[in-house]
Specification:
9-stranded mixed beta sheet
Amino acid sequence: MLKTFTTIALTVSAFYSIAQKFTIEKAATPYSNIIEWKGMGGILMNKIVNSNQIYLTLIGEKDKSIWNQQIAPPNEKYFFISSENARYVYFLRNLNPEAGKIYFDQLNSAGNVKYTNVNMQTVIRNLGYDILNLELKNVVVTDKALVHHFRYHDKKEKVFVDIATFITHHNMLVYAVELGKSKEDDVKSGKTNTFQYVGFTGDEICFADYSSAANSKAWNAIVFNSKGQEQRRLVLKNKASNHQSFGTVGFGTTGSYYIGAEKDVQNGLVTFHNGNFYFSILNNLTGKNTLELYQLDQENWKLINSHVIHSTLSKKQINIGIYPLNEALSYRISGGDNGEQTVALPLDGSTSITHSFNDSFIFNPSRSIISDKKEFFAVTLHSGNLFFDKNQLKKEGNVEFEFIKK
């Protein structure tokens, strides 16, 4: 009988008092991939030959696996959706609804897997829209719900309508809300931006749009709970000057990354994370493209970090995506004159961390905030950093991890 789950063996230990190496014993087939669940650890994956079974082994701060599980997506195809501070991750089998349904494997932090599907068609119809006419803009997971962001282009009325759906983790109930409408001409002229998902804290899920009407340049933020009930509205005034617009690009294990065709142009990006609002802009005041990060302090934006992207103003449009982490806001920067890169701006104001971007950062967000051992898969955990050499993948035998305490 095939041995499908791993067993653990602790090897000889540490070459430093703060470092420890340990071994995960080989599985029935070679480990083929590893992805990060931010804050939890790395998930080793191995596939069974002639089967759609994928086995998952979570490795964290302990010197052994935390749990083992399995999923079985058709043709081994899935879209991994995760977020910092969310106790659930999803392996979606389809991003866009199929016959109104989303199919997925839900995995919680205890290692419990639930395969199911949810019909979104009725709640969309109750808002007065046909789900077939909606454009999917994003899919994210929060601590309480799986959230889809759709947009409808009403060509007759010349407006864009933004819609959000919320699928609660525990009972899989679906709720839908209309976020708001934006006039087509105002969007094209730059007076208004369409709604964007900007983050969550606990059961607060926030969307915001931007208006640059005379004397009222501001983000209009709306906070919902996981049942789609509006909790509060905020007007976040934009007092910045000499900043330029930029395109948006997907970053992180979200639907916007997988969709890969964002066209939205923004004057700045608002982020809601751990109860705080942050504001990211491109400042061109000094003849440079400088990425600036502000935190809302009462009613004022306080500059907490910055990074010069280009020492001279780029002639090409710059595109920016944000992955909010507890330690930093991590950015994917594309377009421009310096190629594609990641920039992490630590929230404590310490020096920015940069890397050349590749797709591995999507599934290993901690890598963007760890400057050492750049050749390794790296995970930030509560008491230290976990490292793994990906050259061990797709080879027979045990694999080795290194944990370095902070």
